TrEMBL record:
<dbReference type="InterPro" id="IPR042099">
    <property type="entry name" value="ANL_N_sf"/>
</dbReference>
<dbReference type="InterPro" id="IPR000873">
    <property type="entry name" value="AMP-dep_synth/lig_dom"/>
</dbReference>
<dbReference type="GO" id="GO:0031956">
    <property type="term" value="F:medium-chain fatty acid-CoA ligase activity"/>
</dbReference>
<keyword id="KW-0436">Ligase</keyword>
<feature type="domain" description="AMP-binding enzyme C-terminal">
    <location>
        <begin position="408"/>
        <end position="482"/>
    </location>
</feature>
<dbReference type="InterPro" id="IPR020845">
    <property type="entry name" value="AMP-binding_CS"/>
</dbReference>
<dbReference type="GO" id="GO:0006631">
    <property type="term" value="P:fatty acid metabolic process"/>
</dbReference>
<dbReference type="Pfam" id="PF13193">
    <property type="entry name" value="AMP-binding_C"/>
</dbReference>
<protein>
    <submittedName>
        <fullName>Acyl-CoA synthetase (AMP-forming)/AMP-acid ligase II</fullName>
    </submittedName>
</protein>
<comment type="similarity">
    <text>Belongs to the ATP-dependent AMP-binding enzyme family.</text>
</comment>
<dbReference type="Pfam" id="PF00501">
    <property type="entry name" value="AMP-binding"/>
</dbReference>
<dbReference type="InterPro" id="IPR025110">
    <property type="entry name" value="AMP-bd_C"/>
</dbReference>
<feature type="domain" description="AMP-dependent synthetase/ligase">
    <location>
        <begin position="17"/>
        <end position="357"/>
    </location>
</feature>
<dbReference type="InterPro" id="IPR045851">
    <property type="entry name" value="AMP-bd_C_sf"/>
</dbReference>
Length: 499
């Protein structure tokens, strides 16, 4: 990895890499389009000029809800050039979540893909009262860069608002700076030790906090990444092979998907011959899965730990001992301090940690008196500094690396006339990490309830597709404690994990 000097902002990284290796490929896609680092810088500046003509200035709030495409990365880079405050929104969020985000951030501009995968995002944006809607799927506004103000120079200003469901029914806005995102991406780059001959891949939504993580790694290490607008196997394998991808992954669910596909092949045939590394995070990784990947896929596996509030906390390295790669989440970089509280909760302090939330009260509750972030995860540190996660304090479900709020789904289920009470839990799933299971009580005299009926009801209520329950269990009574009558979800997890 070559040093780019003192690069306090994301734009300084983009400009620095473009100066070092302007003709090296940066972004690839499944249609065989490509953008070099020099072209990324130049096009981002032209788009920044187009946005500037549209009224976007340093500090202007801009939301974007776009799939993983070259245009999306260019738009985000252009906003970084202007010093705007970006609000990336997951492309599968719908009226409920998007409406909340727009109310919280009041963006002057909302970029959407138009109709994408059968859903009209433009109509939703207008329905929700967005003041200026830009369709940015395959075309972006451009102008002359000489009209632009000077690039931002302070990497410590809040210029990013990412969203996480957490344990509440409404998404939480997480405040990040260029510095915190660069710190996260630097951790990834240092641990994985990739170089200009590598080819990465982004198969997850670029609007995820992992998007800038990955971009920073590309800029620091100088290699390209294949962007997949829609990831599915085996369909995506042709693009992986055509571009010679050497590193793939995203989360535990991706490992399982690649593994399942490999097991369909004849003995000795590799689904991606150039693949040498799987990496990711976002969900627990069973130790046995590590050994299966190494044995069957014939590549290394380096797993890490991150969250929207701190995009990269620890990361495994291919150089780590096998037992540490299999059974831990890797080690933190020098810029991340981890403390284990008395109750086992993992506490964080460091450059990659966010500045707090859009809600000041949430910020007060999230940090302790010494400035450590309470993660809600439970774990321990090994004597040689590796982190082992053992559970969660937070009542969330991590499905394919994405947080799903149980409370949000429960509150919607309560409105169903055939449901008297509900508890939503996560159950272990080899492909998803966890699957969403709704356990319900029915009122007396109610008719039989089906999973299809429940999911149709939740869709109508505006719940995002990735949060829909995949399992329904009807019980006579939910187990509760004898004091506050709280539902004992651990009993439900034990019961239906064994079922």
């Amino acid at each position: 990895m070559r040093s780019l000097g003192d690069s306090p902002t994301l734009w300084a990284l983009i400009a620095g890499r473009a100066a070092l290796t302007p003709d090296a490929p940066a972004l690839l896609d499944t249609d065989d389009r490509r953008l070099t680092f020099g072209q990324l810088r130049d096009r981002a500046e032209r788009v920044a000029a187009g946005l500037h003509a549209r009224g976007v200035r340093p500090g202007t709030a801009v939301a974007w809800q776009l799939p993983t495409r070259i245009e999306t990365v260019v738009l985000s880079a252009a906003l970084a050039r202007l010093g705007a405050v970006q609000t990336p929104i997951m492309p599968f969020y719908r009226d409920h979540e998007v409406g909340h985000i727009l109310r919280q951030t009041s963006p002057a501009l909302f970029a959407v893909p138009g109709t994408w995968r059968g859903f009209d995002h433009t109509a939703m944006a207008r329905r929700l009262g967005a003041p200026d809607v830009l369709e940015a799927y395959d075309s972006l506004p451009e102008g002359e860069p000489d009209t632009l103000p000077a690039p931002p120079s302070d990497g410590t200003r809040v210029r990013w608002i990412y969203w996480t469901s957490g344990t509440t029914s409404e998404p939480k806005g997480v405040l990040h700076t260029d510095r915190s995102l660069i710190a996260g991406g630097s951790c990834l780059a240092l641990a994985l030790e990739l170089g200009p001959d590598d080819v990465g891949s982004v198969a997850f939504p670029y609007a995820h906090i992992g998007g800038p993580d990955y971009l920073v790694m590309l800029l620091l290490c100088g290699f390209p990444a294949l962007l997949l607008e829609h990831f599915s196997l085996p369909d995506s394998l042709a693009a992986y092979r055509r571009h010679g991808v050497t590193m793939a992954g995203g989360s535990t669910a991706f490992y399982s998907l690649f593994l399942a596909e490999q097991r369909k092949q004849p003995a000795g045939g590799r689904i991606i011959p150039t693949l040498r590394l799987l990496s990711g995070g976002g969900a627990p990784k069973p130790p046995e899965l590590y050994h299966e990947v190494v044995r069957d896929l014939g590549c290394a596996l380096a797993h890490g730990y991150g969250m929207t509030e701190a995009p990269m906390i620890t990361m495994g390295s291919p150089r780590d001992p096998v037992d540490r790669l299999a059974a831990t989440e890797g080690r933190p970089p020098a810029s991340m301090e981890i403390r284990i509280a008395e109750d086992g909760e993992v506490l964080l302090r460091g450059e990659a940690v966010c500045q707090g939330y859009t809600d000041p009260e949430l910020t007060k509750r999230a940090f302790d008196a010494e400035g450590f972030l309470r993660t809600g995860d439970v774990g321990r540190l090994t004597p040689d500094g590796y982190l082992v996660l053992t559970g969660r304090l937070k009542d969330i479900i991590i499905r394919k690396g994405e947080n799903v709020s149980a409370k949000e789904i429960e509150e919607l289920l309560y409105a169903h006339p055939g449901i008297a009470d509900a508890a939503v839990i996560g159950l272990p799933d080899p492909e998803r990490g966890e699957r969403v299971c709704a356990v319900v009580e029915q009122p007396q005299g109610a008719g039989p309830l089906t999973l299809a009926e429940v999911t149709a009801f939740l869709r109508e209520a505006g719940l995002a597709v990735h949060k829909l329950p995949e399992q329904l269990e009807v019980v006579d009574a939910l187990p509760r404690n004898e004091t506050l009558r709280k539902v004992l979800k651990y009993q439900l997890r034990e019961r239906f994990t064994k079922a």
